[in-house]
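Open question from group meeting: does this chain pack into something compact, or does most of it stay loose? Before anyone orders reagents, we agreed to write out a predicted structure and look at it together. Recording both the input and the output here so the notebook holds the full record.
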Amino acid sequence: MIGLDSNVLVRYFTQDDKDQSARATRLVEGLDEDNQGFVSLVALVELHWVLRRAYKVSRDDATGILRKLLNAQELVVQEPDAVRRALTRVAGDIDFSDALISELDTAAGCVYTATFDGRAARLVGMELVPEIDAAESG
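Structure tokens returned:
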């Protein structure tokens, strides 16, 4: 098994650099069930972020790419069940990374995940860090 960095995955899916995209395509399409590629959670989150922010890929298309990675027999995705659950929670303005953090923290036994992100706090399992009252701050 070989690990696949997010930049290899970006080049494979965007085909935006003639040389690197060709090399990434040869590598990824040369994988099979006996010689698999490994996609870490960090690489997956980076891929999603780069597709959404740098390439302006729609949320549906970006999550569709992650689903393709999950379903590929020639790839092993780290924590695939948590990734699948997170993908079902991505909607509206909820980011994949926030949904994945929530899923991983829940699986680790966390009561909740503390956040300052109001959008993320709408996810089940995430809560805003409470403000400090003037009386508490001394």
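Observations to bring back to the group:
The chain has two domains: 1-78, 81-130.
Residues 34 and 74 are 8 Å apart (CA to CA).
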